[in-house]
Design goal:
The protein has 400 residues and is of the alpha/beta class. Helices cover 32% and strands 18% of the residues. It is built from 14 helices and 14 strands. A six-stranded mixed β-sheet has the order 2-3-1-4-5-6, with helices on both faces. β9, α7 and β10 form a beta-alpha-beta unit. The longest helix has 15 residues. The two termini are 38 Å apart. The model has no long low-confidence stretch (mean pLDDT 85).
């Protein structure tokens, strides 16, 4: 997978923050060598966060985020400030840009406290240093630059590279298989499937299978039974799209390990155990409860969409209760979850680990799980689907 193909959820997210007209956009453009954001002498030119996926040496694939001015005023300004706070949820490295001719303001101090409070690695960048006749010596977290003259920009890139977070040590499937193994991946091709391509978790899993020197056999759900009889040996693992769980479980002999893309992605993103604990809340749902179904990406809703149609239907059928359904997608995620009996989240393939961890932490007190775990639980096969992770399977009641 090349730099341009790296999914946004696997990129280092670098957020540029600061007051209006501190020169955030100019610094972004100088760092990237591209005009990603509009630059103007008028305060508040950047009205929404600007996202740009690119390769930034020496870091590699990154997501650059230019944010609105944090000192914006009025009702629209409050909305921009709220969006800036939302960006912090997914920021791996923060750059606080300050006008060197004005120095740090109370607003900058507030931003710095927010960044520190979220334990985000950061740099304080004093822009417009070319206008200073002299300046104080920079501390270890500080740097003087000039976006106009490019002074200090190369050093800024090097300093950002040093703040690069460690890559997740949790793979999707690589550690569960051995060279020479067969892995069968069940991929339904229905009205909800993207035309001419596979969805991201399927692509990523196939790549890891190949990287492990194993053989990936991709089939539709109605071809699984025949495929298993023709292989000549048992596959090390069958991985299915969650929507086909019931049929795939029926067609896969019990001695063959079975799991789902969604379960594997939950482990990869670091919230599998919490999602397993949260799923039992389905059994406690009552008439009138509201369940939030949240997707990390935005897409055109199909007539039989999983988040807005299938999951609500399965919840009603399983519980027999009159449950209300609320939905969010993309970067939307409520600040207050107290009105929800539980949250059912997608696999989070388009969200980085920091954003997923924020959403999990933010849900404290509200049970949270994900699509695949909820579907496996409601179809009575979650314990079997977790046999690949024995310690986690032990958390599931025997009735499963």
């Amino acid at each position: 997978m090349g730099f341009n193909d790296t999914p946004s959820g696997e990129r280092i997210h670098i957020g540029f923050f600061g007051r209006r007209n501190a020169g955030k956009s100019s610094v972004v453009n100088a760092v990237t060598g591209q005009n990603l954001a509009v630059v103007s002498n008028t305060k508040g030119t950047t009205t929404d966060p600007v996202y740009k996926a690119m390769e930034l040496l020496p870091l590699g694939p990154v997501m650059i985020i230019d944010t609105p001015g944090f000192d914006d005023v009025g009702s629209l300004g409050e909305l921009r400030v709220q969006k800036t706070k939302q960006v912090l949820r997914k920021t791996d490295i923060a750059v606080l840009v300050i006008d060197a001719t004005e120095g740090m303001s109370p607003c900058d101090t507030e931003l710095l406290q927010l960044i520190r409070g979220k334990n985000i690695p950061y740099l304080i960048v004093y822009n417009k240093a070319d206008r200073l006749s002299s300046h104080a010596e920079a501390d270890k977290d500080e740097l003087y630059v000039s976006a106009l003259s490019s002074q200090g920009i190369a050093t800024l890139k090097e300093r950002l590279a040093r703040l690069k977070p460690e890559e997740s040590s949790v793979p999707i499937v690589r550690d569960l298989i051995h060279a020479g193994d067969f892995v069968v991946l069940v991929v339904p091709i229905d009205s909800a499937a993207p035309k001419g391509r596979l969805i991201l978790p399927q692509q990523q899993t196939i790549r890891e299978v190949l990287d492990a020197d194993c053989m990936a056999i991709v089939v539709k759900e109605n071809e699984l039974r025949h495929t298993l009889t023709q292989l000549g040996k048992n596959p090390a693992l069958v991985i299915t799209d969650s929507q086909a769980f019931a049929r795939v479980a029926k067609d896969t002999p019990t001695h063959i390990l079975l799991t789902s893309f969604s379960i594997l992605m939950a482990r990869h993103k670091g919230f599998l155990e919490e999602a397993i604990h949260g799923v039992t809340a389905i059994d406690r749902l009552q008439d009138g409860d509201t369940v939030l179904i949240s997707e990390g990406c935005t897409h055109h809703r199909q007539c039989d969409d999983i988040g807005t149609v299938k999951l609500p239907r399965w919840l009603h059928e399983y519980t027999g209760k009159d449950i209300h359904i609320a939905t969010t997608s993309g970067r939307e995620f409520p600040d207050d979850l107290s009105s929800y009996a539980m949250v059912i989240h997608c696999g989070g393939c388009m969200l980085n680990s920091r954003e997923m961890q924020f959403r999990m932490k933010h849900a404290q007190g509200t049970p949270i799980t994900n699509y695949g775990i909820a579907i496996a639980y409601m179809t009575g096969i979650l314990k079997r689907s977790l046999r690949v992770f024995p310690s986690l399977a032990a958390l599931i009641p025997s009735a499963q």
